User: Fold this.
Amino acid sequence: MTSTTLPARIKSKVLTGKLALGILAVLVLLAFSLFTGVYDIFGKDDGAMMFAVTRIPRTIALVLAGAAMAMSGLVMQLLTQNRFVEPTTTGTTEWAGLGLLTMLVFFPTATLLAKMSVAIAFAFIGTMIFFLFLQRVSLKASLTVPIVGIMLGSVVGAFSTFFALSTDKLQSMGIWLAGSFTSVIRGQYEVLWIVAIVAVAIYIVADRFTVAGLGEEIATNVGLNYRQVMLLGTALIAVATGVVTVVIGNLPFLGLIVPNIVSMVRGDDLRSNLPWVCLLGIAITTICDLVGRTIIMPFEVPVSLILGVLGAVVFIFLLLRQRKVG
Amino acid sequence: MITLNSVSKQYSSTVSIGPVSLEIPTGGITALVGPNGAGKSTMLTMVGRLLGIDQGSIEVSGYDVSKTNSKDLAKIVSILRQENHFVTRLTVRQLVGFGRYPHSKGRLTQADEEIISRSIDFLDLGELEARYLDELSGGQRQRAYVAMVLAQDTDTVLLDEPLNNLDMKHSVVMMQHLQRAARELNRTIVIVLHDINFAGHYADYICAMKQGKVVHFGTPAQIMQDEILSEVFETPVNVVPGPNGPLAVYY
Assistant:
């Protein structure tokens, strides 16, 4: 073994030609998003104003929310060592929703930031409960974990519904939580930029999450504080999910589809995968939003509906594939 | 050198370890043998600080395992437990690279890459290094994990039943690799083995455990005796001369 063969053996470049192509494709999609809509932005006098107030914010929101949910799913899958978890199959989204509802009922005049903070706190607590439960019962069987998560989420969701019903908030909660980019306008979406910070944080500590994905014992063996990484990961997921749930609503299955597709093609090295996970997350969200905006023009279908249909199909495909592999 | 000073641990209501006092010398392979539930894996896990101890102290190369920072310990002792169910989709090279984590924190230098390559070549994984772990056979995957702990470059390496799930050929190859690692790379390897004959042939020292206590410690020649093995394994064992050294017959 000589060191002259080394360069050929090392392949860890993050920026490649393929990635550049991917970025280009996503940019094209985003351009479509910018110029799709009922309002004639070129013909009318206030077209430029409408463009700045609705189209640009909406497109930025697509980028941020899509990337955030896809990354949350990826980190969650590494931390639980399970391919089927993501914020909507572990109850995280439902907890964030319950947090939001609590604010709507008790502090209806609170600022968006305050509502969001409470949603984040609820998402964090709920996800921790789920993780602690997993540790206690050591359910590592791949299918049991999301089933437990979905059940937990349903219980929280049912409680929220009952709570909303008895406080006459059911309708407004439904509107808040149905994932939709329709109401994204200037002045109401800017807090979404918080998830950009989450993305940077995940990139910086990416290796720790990958090591944690090898299991607690291997992580401890290489000197990683496993619990600390779990807490950090949960906090980042909670922030991303909380912010997106409050500003956009549910984006079901996004965190499930994207990391699984990327993993199939590129493996599980988080650092080199992150750009791809972000891109694919953005692409899928944008496509679903474009479909939602155009199929019943001039009306819109919430993006969560399209994602739900698409996600369910991919989820079933993954299940069948898993059974074949064994 | 690994030193255990009256170490004890209540593992569960039925399994308890110790008090164990033991010195495992530097260099060579030390095999932990004994019947099921003797506490071999538990003891190994405690030495590798994956499990806390109730009483006593464990020192590896002079560092107290329960008082030394886990990050620093990762450069002194590495431990590999039995394979877990979840198989991450990392390539062999990426996995072995994470063995360098205690040294590089994920930012691999040229020197790290060379150690990774050496470790991969040492376990004959050169052709498989770009393959994903879930595309490998159980034996190949086991070898990749061993390459990872070797790349960690610690003086002491603890392996919990690395021959589990390996067929005859791969078990022999694995033991030969470990023997070379002990001799050529000067590692102190402590290994839990089920097959007493593997221990008798490849180990430099055998540590026999029973009911949570160390009952015998010595060279294979000292341990491979009818009375000792029969007593440890609670079944009649005859040691007969084989073509390559003594063999325990217990069928």
Notes: The two ends of chain B are 36 Å apart (CA to CA).
